[in-house]
Amino acid sequence: MPGKNWTTQKAALAERIDGGSRFAAGKRVQPGDLCAFFEAVLRPGDRVCLEGDNQKQADLLAQALAELNPTRVNDLHMVQSGIVLPEHLDMFEKGIAKRLDYSYSGPQSARIARMLFSGKIELGAVHTYLELFARYFIDLTPNVALIAAVSADRDGNLYTGPNTEDTPTVVEATSYKSGLVVAQVGEIVERVPRVDIPGDLVHFVVPAGKPFFVEPLFTRDPAAITETQILTAMLAIKGIYAPYRVRRLNHGIGFNTAAIELLLPTYGEKLGLRGQVCTHFALNPHPSLIPAIEAGWVEQIHSFGSEVGMEDYIAARSDVFFTGPDGSLRSNRAFCQTAGLYACDMFIGSTLQIDLAGNSSTVTTSRVAGFGGAPNMGSDPHGRRHPSAPWLQAGKEADDTTPPLLRRGRKLVVQIGESFGAKNEPLFVERLDALSLAEKLNLELAPVMVYADDVTHIVTEEGIANLLLCRDKNEHEQAIRGVAGYTEIGRQRDHKMVERLRARGVIQRPEDLGIDPLDADRNLLAARSMKDLMRASGGLYQPPSRFRNW
Amino acid sequence: MAIVGVVASGNLEALFERTDDESACRVEVSTAAHGFQPLWEAVLRDFVARGTGGLRISINDGGARPDMVALRLAQGLRLMQDPEA
Description:
The complex is a heterodimer.
Chain A: H1 8-21, E1 24-25, E2 28-29, H2 34-41, E3 47-50, E4 56-57, H3 59-66, E5 76-82, H4 86-94, E6 97-104, H5 109-117, E7 122-126, H6 129-136, E8 144-152, E9 158-159, H7 167-175, E10 180-188, E11 204-207, E12 213-214, H8 227-244, E13 248-251, H9 255-270, E14 280-282, H10 290-294, E15 300-302, H11 311-315, H12 333-342, E16 346-349, E17 353-354, E18 360-361, H13 374-377, H14 389-398, E19 412-416, H15 433-441, E20 457-460, E21 463-466, H16 473-481, H17 488-491, H18 495-503, E22 507-508, H19 530-536
Helix pairs in contact in A: 1-2, 3-4, 8-9
Chain B: E1 2-5, E2 12-18, E3 25-30, H1 37-48, E4 55-61, H2 66-81
């Protein structure tokens, strides 16, 4: 194309940098100048990533952005994994932002639902993390990224500390595609402890004078674990971890999986499973895993993010965690999601609703929580080619006719929970609330967390349903009804068929596995309180104040 | 005789006693939660199908969910069968 200008993006970036430099000293922009600065670097309709991770938040930049005059900056297209702070939605109320593509909205799940219903937000899609990151490099590349780090030097080299999370991915996609990168940092230092983001990718730095906002999301107080949760954990360990010899896995963040973590050093030890299962994790640093780590169960953990209070413990256990030359954790959500997808043989996690086909969802009609890592962790990767014992065994159970050399393995995708959840809501439903939501919002897809064809096992207090062994739709449905307890779904089971499935081992009851109901006791937990966890860590774990009740 | 559980929110206490009548299992439920009779009957029907003749069971319910009720009943039965457990 003769005469075509092939460098418009570089020119636009130069303009943004020129505009922004009027409010900066070198790369440094003072917080008080942020509004003027943003008006100089942002254009209406820009695609903006306001970091917005699962854990850490560029809170100062979010506040400034939400205070802009919508006649100057408007119709922004926000592309960020987390909608966590109120400001993330205030921007839509004011018309500063218009369109949204995101992944997770835990704390804002009720408000985001209201704003979607009222049309305040034009929704692109709710993504899994890895999916949104992938789109950053294809069709959702940010024009501007507003990120958060612990510290910066004068050249803009950034130290992210333990919560690196999404930052490298966001910066890679933005900066190398001629987008502008602005970082808020807790402080500017002479020399950063380690370089997580090279300074030549960062155009401006804002000294916030305080650390970015970060929340403990994975801390489960062992005191709140119930005996039925302990029973489900025993079923999972004896009925799934042991027979499949699951060494590489990811755990969800609910109480059932916390119970599993706390049973490894007690119940798991009794079963002789140390070294045989749970040796390698893609996992955030869950405090409830401390007793198992201390008892020598875990060889290695790669993390999506960090967890407040775990910093010193992690630094002191560098044989287990990935740490930098500065000693602190290096997390990376994109890499860890990839690891969970391709290098783990099992995902096990809780959910809010499971339908008769086995689809599961955490959406209710009044809350759109989005997805965390579960849809990616809880899916069978068709790009996988390396064999492992659990993967091959699951593949064989699903398909006993294809010759072994041509047979795909299967990732174990386990949904675990009590048949009745919080507020006595049944876990098993005729129809997912996600469908009503999709209809109400005119979505082309219902937000399904884990699709039925990916789920291999369902564990409740009533037993384990191995869906790999079901040979038709009817068996599949009755296997689900057969562990659905006293929910409507469970009580409408075909009792004879469920007994036949039990005889074939498709359904296994606690007594079929030799599990003594008397063992379902809180004394079986390796730690029964936050203080126990702290003690187990040798005082290295420092629980956040809200979890300290002593 | 055996006692399992505690009277607490979402939990229950169940007292198990032997009777001379091997053909009957008598269960008394004391609960403040109304409207759950069909659910109690379903849980208890499955429980007595496991062979619980000669037992009298008194339940002091604190609003336990069916999963907790079933667990406590299984624990009590286990203790009656094997008091050393």
